[in-house]
Amino acid sequence: MSTSLTLVRHRARLHWFADGLPQILGGLPAILFGFYLASDGPQNRSTLSSILSISAMFLYAALLPGSKPLLEWLKQRITYPRTGYAAPPYFTEDPHSLNTDQLSLMQADTRSKDEIAQVRHERTRRTILLLVLMIGYSLALLLVRSPWICFPVGVLTGIAIWLGSRKDEHFSLWIPFGLGLLGLYLSQLTLNPLERIGRILMGIGILFVVEGLIKLFRFLRQNPLPKPAAPHQGPRAQS
Amino acid sequence: MASFAVPGMTPDLQALATLDRVIHEPARLMIMTVLYAIPEADFLYLQRECELTQGNLSSHLAKLEEAGYLTITKTFKGKYPLTICKLTRKGRQAFEAYSTAMRCVTHGLNPSKP
Predict the structure, then answer these.
(1) End-to-end CA distance of chain B, in Å?
(2) Which residues of A touch B (CB under 8 A)?
(3) Does B43 touch chain A (CB under 8 A)?
(4) Has residue B109 got a pLDDT over 90?
(5) Going from the N-terminus, what domains does chain B have, and what CATH number goes with each?
(6) Which residues of B fall within a CB distance of 8 Å from A77?
(7) Confidence band (pLDDT; 50, 70, 90) for A238?
(8) Cβ atoms of B86 and B35 closer than 8 Å
(9) Inter-chain touch B48–A73, beta carbons under 8 Å
(10) Which residue of B has its CA nearest to A81?
């Protein structure tokens, strides 16, 4: 029984990521922040470059806290009318995402509680690992002068992102492959350390957005809107 | 809950006889399983997950709602109307009791033996 419950929860989680919108909204802030970092130092900036990088920073600051409502807003218009709505099950980790009644119902079930705790623990561990790796890579990019450092950093970042998120979002293999190529490309350029970090971040963001757009395109093609002529769904409407 | 126990039956078989017939029906069991696993889902999601027709799902949901096992709320997410279904506490308890009874009956069952 618990196996099928786990599968149901897993399917609900996949349903949340199937439309590519989380990837797109996750990639955009990385592009904006990367663009800001990749711009030259303030003394070398042209007026246009300064305006663009400051705008990118403002957009980044606006997008970061607003990404969850924005995601919900997009899902209401794109996903729910096509494939329906299911509360993302592991969002029960966040007590604010469910009302008290729902939370107490879920937590009353010991098996659900254990499973949620296990997933929460695993996710925290992955996030910490990813953060440590990212800080390590950033330090390597800042401290190692040789441009070739970009290549291993690109490859390892790609592998870390792919391994860290494969259970949740099922990124395709071309994310680590693309980051490896990006690292190889950057290793051919002479860049200051902040520019390297910025460009790698932009690369990560672009790959996420492209991956998300491909998923979204497939999702829209496979799930056309139901015909409006059909009677409204729901048991009361039927009776 | 429709149940009947016949005197003289072995305890395992008695457990079978007391199974909750509202949940025991396969389509309703699928609905209950989905809603037990996730906090809430809408009509369309349930329809796709359980591969039921609109009419079929509607009637099963109505029966489960009548038994007090789930609540159906019509709401809007933006402009899109949603028929949100959630298990009640009674529904969760009934599902747990049902799964315990089934496990009790099928315990030790070896599917490889004829």
Answers:
(1) 33
(2) 1, 4-6, 8-9, 11-12, 15, 72-73, 76-77, 80-81, 83-87, 89, 92, 98, 102, 105-106, 108-109, 112, 226, 230-239
(3) yes
(4) no
(5) 12-90 (1.10.10.10)
(6) 78-80
(7) very low
(8) yes
(9) no
(10) B80
pLDDT band at B85 (very low <50, low <70, confident <90, very high): very high
Among B95, B87, B71, B104, smallest CA distance to B22 is for B95
Which tens digits make up the pLDDT trace of A148-161? 888 888 888 888 77
Give the pLDDT score at A97. Answer: 46
Query: What is the Cα–Cα distance from A235 to A175, expressed in whole angstroms?
Result: 44
Around A80, how many Cα atoms within 13 Å sit in the side-chain half-sphere? Answer: 24
Percent of chain B exceeding pLDDT 70 equals: 79
Cβ burial, residue A130 (10 Å; 0-12/13-18/19+): middle
**B62/A84 Cβ within 8 A:** no
Residues of chain B positioned with their CB less than 8 A from the CB of A109: 36, 92, 96
> A193-222 vs A21-38: helix axis angle to the nearest 10?
160
* Chain B residue at shortest CA distance from A97: B39
Which of A98, A230, A238 shows the shortest C-beta gap to B39?
A98
For the stretch A217-233, pLDDT in tens is 999 999 988 776 544 45
Quick check: B78 and A73 CB within 8 A?
A: yes
Spatial CA neighbour of A203 closest among A181, A219, A223, A221: A181
Higher per-residue confidence, A38 vs B27: B27
Flag whether the pTM goes above 0.90. Answer: no
Task: Tell me what pLDDT residue B84 has.
Answer: 92
Q: Which residues of A59-85 are buried (b: 16+ CB within 10 A; e: fewer)?
A: bbeeeeeeeeeebeebbbebbbbbbbb
pLDDT of residue A212: 92
Please, are residues A231 and A237 in contact by the beta-carbon 8 Å criterion? yes
